[in-house]
Design a protein that fits this description.
alpha+beta; 2 domains; 10 helices; HypE; PurM-like_N
Length: 357
Amino acid sequence: MADLTEALATDPANWTCPAPLRDQGVVVMGHGGGGALSAELIDQVFAPAYGNPTLAGLADSAVLQLGGARLAFSTDSYVVRPLFFPGGCLGDLAVNGTVNDLAMSGARPAYLSTAFVLEEGVEIAVVDRVARALGAAARAADVTVATGDTKVVESGHGDGVYVTTAGVGLVPDGVDIRPQRARPGDAVLVSGPIGLHGVAVMSVREGLEFGIEIASDTAPLAGLVAAMLAVTKDVHVLRDPTRGGLGASLNEIARASGTGVRITERAVPVPDEVANACGFLGLDPLYVANEGRLVAFVPRGHADAVLAAMRAHPQGAGAALIGECVAEHPGMVTVATGLGGTRVLDLPLGEQLPRIC
């Protein structure tokens, strides 16, 4: 028995790994998770195919000069399962996600396009419900759905309804928000409790009950960003921590700017119900997706005033200062734990909870 155990331990052919290997020759779910596999797919496939200076910024939206105006432009696809979940559905998620990507460049969102891919056999009532939610969310976000498209695929070749939205907005003069602008000394702010969206979707998908309904945080953030910019236009970085959660967003910013990021675990607002659910499911809340939160890097001299403005806005009532940007460990994120230690918060390989946005 000892010889068998040793053979199993030493022969690599007997090793298994629950995560997808990095040299996969096919697409795996992790490639859509917003982590290291997604970054590799972009770096190795899409960037070489499309490569240009505008794309190279890899921000939530591209900022373009057009006819003397500065436009933010973004596109995103939504493949959430289930279509309806506590606090929202595919329709409002599609609006808020794109509106928020524009807002992360400091833009005032103006127009959206929508493209529906419908699976043969899906009930018209379901499509109508998604479309009505999308329209209501657009009106709430003060954007116009200006154009769209619809396609139908054969039964078994879709998942009910997929939606792709693209959006444009105007970037005010003097605003320059992008991940490369993070600087040592910047305060790191988060706009409210994290993890709600990912746990809300998972609870419905898996039929889990945690003693209290956990609702998604999906919401438009352009108004919150405008309130922050009213304090100072010198906001360095904004990011909405969707796929891969806060952990992925902080790593992307650290790597893009060549700086280090240090956060304090106890300062990060994690609701008790999210912490309990994550403990039950074996998840790290820092990697769980959000759809109505942002993380901001702000010069320390403006941080208190920006934080106060955030807390005065409905979408920033739970805002908190969670850390700082540092010169040490460039490109790396560290977490000061509640026990007095320090751990590295790495870029996740894939996503703990797939198909949630």
